[in-house]
Records
---
Amino acid sequence: MIDPIHVKVLSLVFNPAVKSRRAKNLLEAMGWNEVDILTARYLADLRECSRGYARYRVVERIQVDAFPVKEDGFRYDGNEFMGMMHRGRGFHKADQVDYRQILEDYQIVEKVRTEGIDEVWMFGPPYAGFFESRMAGSGAFFCNAPPLKHGEDTPRRFIIMGFNYERGVGEMLESFGHRAEAIMRQVYRDRLGEDNLWERFTRHEKTHPERSEVGTVHYAPNSVADYDWGNPRRVLSRCRTWESYPDLSGEPAWVDSREWGGGDMRMHHLWWLRHIPRTSGENNGVSNNWWEYLIDPCRV
């Protein structure tokens, strides 16, 4: 029996006011997804595919009536931004958001230290300048983005997720999946050959003909290109053996896209995440519950 892990989340929602007869803010004016609905579905999906292990809870939600500031000091105006979206051009070229300013403006490092905040989720529109995930704190390492140096004196690592509320839960799961890929590469960084079980987990037909396993976030076992989750061709794969981890002695089976949702992004990502091991014990010094690394980077 593995006890669940409880994660306290700070949610920052950047949703600037606009002058519109139809709406008060950018999200309403553009008809994009409600953040609370996205959050609820994302929480439920992670809990389900981790078999109850990942218990996220938003303990503080801050609604920000502005765009986040860019690293060069630029900040969008809500109505000007709507015009750019309708025209499809004119966006600020230096896109990167100023993470240092965000940490300072919302006392995030202090909240991690004193209030037990484990993770930060930022929601914003397209061109907000967020990385999908970025790690901060003492000993932070690459997590689908360079480690954030500001806040290094924080005694533990924490992850800042960046979500686009124009998109859906499938894209949120993709961001989590890339975070998982980066963290597991770090876990297995010193393991070579067949001892590197993460390398084995991610094999797919394009890189390992007739030896595919679960694949990656972008590549299903039979994919021939990025995002090719709906490819109907059948391949021989050992993806099902991972359901019995750490026993990987099962025989390969013929599979196709029906196995992971027939091309649906969210269904593929849920299928992929369900195959990440979550059992007791350890194997060659690595926990058999890989989810503990994905949720708490301090355990890496």
Note: The beta strands are 5-14, 54-64, 119-124, 133-136, 158-164, 235-237, 253-255, 278-283, 286-289.
---
Amino acid sequence: MLNEQERNQLLEHVRSYPEPRAGLTYVLQYLQQRAGYLSDAAVTEAAKLTGLSEMQVNEIITFYTLLYRRPTGRHIVRLCDSLVCSARGSESLFAHAERVLGVPTGTNTPDGAITVLPSICLGLCDHAPAVLVDETAAGPLDKASLAAILENLQKNEE
């Protein structure tokens, strides 16, 4: 999975912390960038690099919403479902995204281009309901603006 140089670089990073667990998120992000998600092999590799058990690594992965154990689309649309965004209509936006894309929230479009995921908080309450498309924030959203974002992503994939 990793070549010797990558493994040594990651080990050096982990060893720079007094506690190996502190270097785990960097290792996980690195491994995820390679495949788009964290496979069983990636979890095993992260455990070996940090000296943690695979269960401990999985505990960290499930805590962070930006780490994925399943393949995701090339574009990730994180739709906020926090209290403020929910109060301003984000729940109906999830249903609308499902209609526009033709797939349930949390799954990939058939072409592997887009995944819509709930996000507990994007820190964009002043733009609620808000979305983070890859690394770009947008909001406040309504059904038309969300559809335009999703359709633009699809169009750019063609």
Note: Helices lie at 4-15, 24-35, 40-50, 54-63, 83-87, 90-101, 143-157.
---
Amino acid sequence: MATIDIKDVTGATVGSLELDDAVWGAEVNEHLLWEVVKWQRAKARSGTASSLRPSEVRGTGKKPYRQKGTGNARRGMQRGAHHVGGGRVFGPKPRDYEYTLPRKVKKAGLRSALSLRAREQKLIVLDAFSVDKLPDAGGKGAGKGGRLTKRVSQALAKLGAGKALVIDSSDNALLQRGTKNLAGAKWLAPEGLNVYDVLKYDTLIITAPSARQVEAALKPGSGTRGEE
């Protein structure tokens, strides 16, 4: 098992953690990453685009003039797709783009993404991300939105994280609020960890308890549900 330093929110090393190679040291399969991201993006599509067929366009279906003798092209109706204001023949209609991807594939893809961040040394493990214990960014009122966001931003800067995905328990309400308005950071609970967000953000920051929770869910052969 590989060992990684555990840091606090100031960037100081306070311990170490052994990572399970089955989750953090797996083979990085680029095609598998592509498959899972494609599934995630398809699942996220709204599928609400809609256009009118010729039969749905308002107007008469009567032939505008006789077939021959006028010198004009033959025309059957005004609502045809080749006329201005006509309907579209093969235009989009509301549909569901989601499809099924095997759970084993989703879990393997997430192991591959986590292993990629660990291999690139873009994985930071914290003992805890306690926002209320960070140095005040402007006096009292640590729970106020602007100061809370500034505290989280300063903590990420001390950790050397640019665009960062922060993983911590959903009980950490201050961290959720502090990262909400940051364009370069996103908070997720361990059970919401997914391949797309891991690859989207340059650095993965995770607390030690959350890392153990992720390992338990993604270890091969585990009966716990992984990424959904």
Note: The radius of gyration is 27 Å.
---
Amino acid sequence: MIAEAQTWLSNGKLLITGEYLVMEGALSLAIPINKHQSLSVRSNTLDCIVWKAYISDREWFTATFGLLKLDIIDTDNHEIAKKLQDILVAARQLSSNFLSNVNNGFDVETIVDFNIEYGFGTSSTLISNIAMWANVNPYDLLAKTFGGSGYDIACARSVSPILYQRLGSKISVKSVEFSPKFKDKLFFVYLGKKQKSSDSIKAFKNSGKFSINEIDRISDITSKILNTNDFDEFKMLIDEHEKIMSKVIGLPTVKSLYFSDLQGSVKSLGAWGGDFVMVASDDTELETRSYLLDKGFDVIFGFAELV
């Protein structure tokens, strides 16, 4: 008889405003997207955890862990297995009942339905799912493993866009509507260079230059972006957001680097430098897609395709 599996599902994410400064208390707008990672667990008769990870229907990672010590018995990618081991160990530290006092092992299967290079939240969706399996606080598990502000964890569990703010250990998550009248003019474009969030966070902590004034202004811009239905005001706000963050982290804006002749505005999303950007275009969808393709950017999602 095949044991029935338990399955959990978490959403991917996009951070629309507040990148970097979300870690310093800025009010930020984030959206869960219609891309996910699932985690299914069923009992086996072995004294170990057999882990298989899939991207859609393609297996991309396997590992076997001892149940008692969570040691790595076998794997086809030791770096990934070590990080996964760290997460499982951290979950057990948060709950002594997790993977303890059981008479069986487990077959675990994760399925990501998006390209893991996109920065949609491969790590955050995994943390969220493992936290549900272990019945522990996902923010605590994040703090013990990858670190970060936690907005991505909030998106993993949300059914709507959110306003997210973290002040010290206090987290505020408010469900909001974000469906502007001009959403057909908004596009999410992949720059083709996956950014490692932990490296970006470390660089910001080491060299970011900001004051309470920048934090307060980003929070104000977030509120205005959420509430405006005027496309010109929206573009002006994201231009100002880009200008502020360019100064804070000491990097040029993405528009100046790649889209200087675009009729419209461009905003970095999350870590600057290679993941997704949001394009707010004055041109038609056909003209915008043609422009982006001519620039060499061929991963383009319309607003409604992701949100």
Note: The chain has a mean pLDDT of 93.
